[in-house]
Amino acid sequence: MPRLRIASCQINTRVGALDHNVEAILAALAAASDAGCDLAAFPELAITGYPPEDLLLKPGFIAENRAALEKVAAATTDCVAVVGFVDAGRDLWNAAAICAHGEVVGVYHKRELPNYAVFDEARYFARGAEPAQLWSVGGVRVGVSICEDAWNPAGPILDQADSGAELIVNINASPYSEGKIARRERLMGTRAADASTALVYVNQVGGQDELVFDGGSMVFDAQGQLLARSPQFVEDVLIVDVDVDPVYRKRLLDPRGRPTDRALPVAVVGSEEVQASEVRRSSSDAPMIDGPISPLLTPDEEVYRALVVGTRDYLVKNGFTDVVIGLSGGIDSTLVAVVATDAIGPDHVHGVSMPSRYSSDHSRSDAALLADNLGIDYRTIPIEPAHAAMLDMLAPSFEGREPDLTEENLQSRLRGMTLMGLSNKFGWIVLSTGNKSEVAVGYATLYGDTVGGYSVLKDVYKTRVFDLCRWRNTQGDAPVIPEGVITKPPSAELRPDQRDDQSLPPYEVLDPILRGYIEDDRTVAELIAHGHDADTVRRVVRLVDNAEYKRRQSPIGARITEKAFGKDRRLPITNGYR
Q1: What tens digit of pLDDT does each residue of 307-323 get?
Q2: 564 lies in a domain?
Q3: How far apart are CA 44 and CA 146, in angstroms?
Q4: Domain match, 262 and 386 both
Q5: 3-state class (DSSP) for residue 485
């Protein structure tokens, strides 16, 4: 029985950093070759990084991408490498190169181009149209496909299987969202079983702007059973031996009948003599390598690790070494500080307490205790002198008008100015602390709370913020988040005895409405029909719609849901539909 030793190379690429990506590919390829692998698979568009977006409009970038691929191909020997790159001709194609013995021996063009959610592939790429083929590797017929090709049950994988493919290699850049890895596993297992082929699913890992890629690469046998899985959120070279059963037996027993279409051609990779004798690692006499099946993370740990990876890669890939955070003693800034510390280490995190006349003693003490627990730099810069000066300066213009949100927002903006002053002086990037609930309804001061270069919690609802804090306190030798931060009522502390639920519905009421309106695209009538209070729904929807202009001016943040603010949700600011 033929056996292939497969390496699924789950690497962290950088968009546009061609030399870096080539270096990462070559390092993983060397590890695969040293382990005696027959085939090494790399993520979708591994040469350019994913998604390259409008870099694809630069002819020079496309040419350099091809030159980078040639460097990878030149390094190959008898371990076949399947590498994602951009192919160019009359059009551009999202492509996979099959490389061996120092050259590119074949190319596959992606057939199914996603154009939903965060994907814009139809903007840049032409759909693969020319007849595909199979490649014979170690005597095994191998089909190659790219990401979305596997999501279509009647797509290229079925065509390749009908032509006698015994192994499918599917290369991916599949962004993370909550629980998606379980859905991928079900889907890919089904594709393998339906096609009667073993299947290798390799995914990218790391952060790219608001996108986070969680890896979780997998290998399945021809019955759809999971053979091996890489851990999430870390780079990994997953090596596993796959026994390849002859496809004819299962197909003779398949009630769907045998295919009648003309078979795809098969190109031999390597010498005919090696293929015929199967004397390499594919020999069934060699010791078997069973790949590990890394356990799935719990829901809270999965989200937390996504935030850490997204934050770390945004900082590192953009050249930032240090961050500064306004530490109010509230739960949002607390979680941001903990995520940042886990991402880049305590020596690079700077917390700033900026008390006003309304800041409570327990908020100040909670912020100081958190900083001590984390071991981060901590300083206090009171904003009261600036606040008093602003009120005096504006008093003639405000004469005869009662205090309102204006005076509250002045405090937030003064804090934003303070953080930006530190950022400019020391080169620290400001991490904003607003969560998805607040961002959704506009409960954030423009040029105040929204100040920052990256928004860690932008896609995390307030109720989930509490869950993540509780989970993080279960990790390590002792809790790092003061209990008072988790138990006290949320408050912006911009006026005496202020609480969030004086301005908004309680978060346990607000968040389900927001999920229905934002992520499920339900109308007001549908939300009311689902049992939510009619007046509350109308109020919340109005707040969400009216805050669109604020969101357009706010920093990006890690995407963890199926519909984050940004590429996922593109609504007009000027919008008459209610």
Answers
A1: 999 999 999 999 999 99
A2: no
A3: 7
A4: no
A5: helix
Region of poorest pLDDT, from 122-131, 211-220, 275-284, 295-304 = 275-284
Residue 505 has which token pair? Answer: 């519905």
pLDDT tens figures, 136-185: 999 999 999 999 999 988 889 988 988 889 999 999 999 999 999 999 99
Q: Which of 147, 166, 185, 458 is catalytic?
A: 147
* Any domain includes 526: no
Q: Which of 545, 516, 542 has its CA nearest to residue 528?
A: 516
Task: Report yes or no on whether pTM surpasses 0.85.
Answer: yes
Report the alpha-carbon distance of residue 363 to residue 367 in Å, rounded.
6
Q: What is the pLDDT of residue 282?
A: 47
Q: Which amino acid is at 83?
A: V
Element (H, E) at 302: helix 299-317
Structural tokens at position 171: 């290369």
Active-site residue identified among 110, 436, 462, 563: 110
Give the count of beta carbons closer than 10 Å to the beta carbon of residue 439: 28
Is residue 200 located within the same domain as residue 305?
A: no
| Cα–Cα distance, 460 to 15 (Å, whole number) | 25
Q: Taking Cα atoms as reference points, which of 186, 126, 119 lies closest to residue 151?
A: 186
Q: Is 147 a catalytic residue?
A: yes
- Does residue 44 have an active-site annotation? yes
DSSP state at residue 516: I
For the chain, how big is the Rg over CA atoms in Å?
27
CATH of the domain at 77: 3.60.110.10
Given this model, what pLDDT does residue 490 score? 82
563 and 180 in contact (C-beta within 8 Å)? Answer: no
Kindly state whether residue 348 falls inside one of the protein's structural domains.
yes
Please count the structural domains in the chain. 2
Beta-carbon-side half-sphere exposure of residue 14 (alpha carbons within 13 Å):
17
Instruction: Indicate whether 259 and 306 sit together in one domain.
Output: no
The CATH number of the domain holding residue 369 is: 3.40.50.620
Does residue 292 lie in a domain region?
no
Phi and psi dihedrals of 15, rounded to 5? -60, 125
Cα–Cα distances in Å, from 543 out to 262, 505, 533, 550? 59, 12, 15, 11
Virtual torsion, Cα 268, 269, 270, 274, nearest 10 deg: -60
Of 44, 166, 210, 302, which is the active-site residue? 44
Cβ contacts of 163 within 8 Å, gap of 6 or more: 134, 141, 143, 259, 261, 263, 264, 266
The Cα angle at residue 495 between residues 494 and 500, in degrees rounded to 5 = 70
Q: Report pLDDT digits (tens) over 405-439.
A: 898 899 999 999 999 999 999 999 999 999 999 99
